[in-house]
Amino acid sequence: MENYLFGIRPLTEYLAGGGKPERVLIQQGLIGSNFQKLFAMIRDQKVPFQMVPPERLNKFKKHNHQGVVAFMPAITYHSLADVLKTTLEAGETPLLVILDGITDVRNMGAIARSAECAGVHALVLPEKGNAPINADAIKTSAGALTRLPVCKEQSVVHAIGFLKECGIEVVACDDKGSQILYETDLSKGTALIMGSEQRGVSSAAKKMSDRVVNIPMKGKIASLNVSVATGIVLFEIMRQRLFG
């Protein structure tokens, strides 16, 4: 079940305290100074919003929504910088997964499940362009999304730039990659980029990557499901780190 926050003042206070909803529905035609203050905060903080007719909010009529309904995050997001700092201070070799446009919540959940099992330190998501982390995603992940740190960054490119500055090797997985997965040294601190179900890793992310690897295949089907491919790469990284 999704979580909601209703009303102009509660959402204003939530935003003022540093919170960020997934998105906000705003009834068309709202006026007043309190709403104008809230709307300015929504725009300044780049919160996704949609102006909707009054009937769109009918299912929330039992709540005093005042024409404003915010969809709240199903999990608590973490700071990428904090996760990286904690990992390095613990003497561990960082392993992160960047999701570049994963649009299916079931794939999101399956990737999180494999990531948690493989010892990934965090999933990194852009603010826009990915499937929402909702109840379905959490269920598919077998609860991994409630245990595995998830970081939401401004964009994939922004996250890659930060990680490279921190000395993390960025590796994209793509069926046209120039390096074979099993011939690539992935024992160092690594951020793995997995792309969308339709277009794969974006060209901008591939250009910024240190390596672009492919998974060799013998069948006639052109590509693997992204969650399956993620599991294959992660457990190859795990094999290299545990057994050399």
CATH hierarchy: architecture of the largest domain: 3-Layer(aba) Sandwich
The radius of gyration over CA amounts to 20 Å
Form type: elongated
Major β-sheet annotation: 7 strands, parallel
Assess the beta-strand content as a share of residues.
15-25%
Mean pLDDT: 93
Determine the structural class based on helices, strands and strand pairing: alpha/beta
Helix content: 25-40%
- CATH fold naming of the largest domain: Alpha/beta knot
> Could you list the spans in which at least 5 consecutive residues all have pLDDT below 50?
none
Terminal Cα separation, in Å?
A: 44 Å
The ordered string of helix (H) and strand (E) elements is: EHEHEEHEHEHHEHEEEHEH
Order of the strands making up the biggest sheet? 7-6-5-10-8-11-9
The total count of strands amounts to 11
What is the domain total for the residues? 2
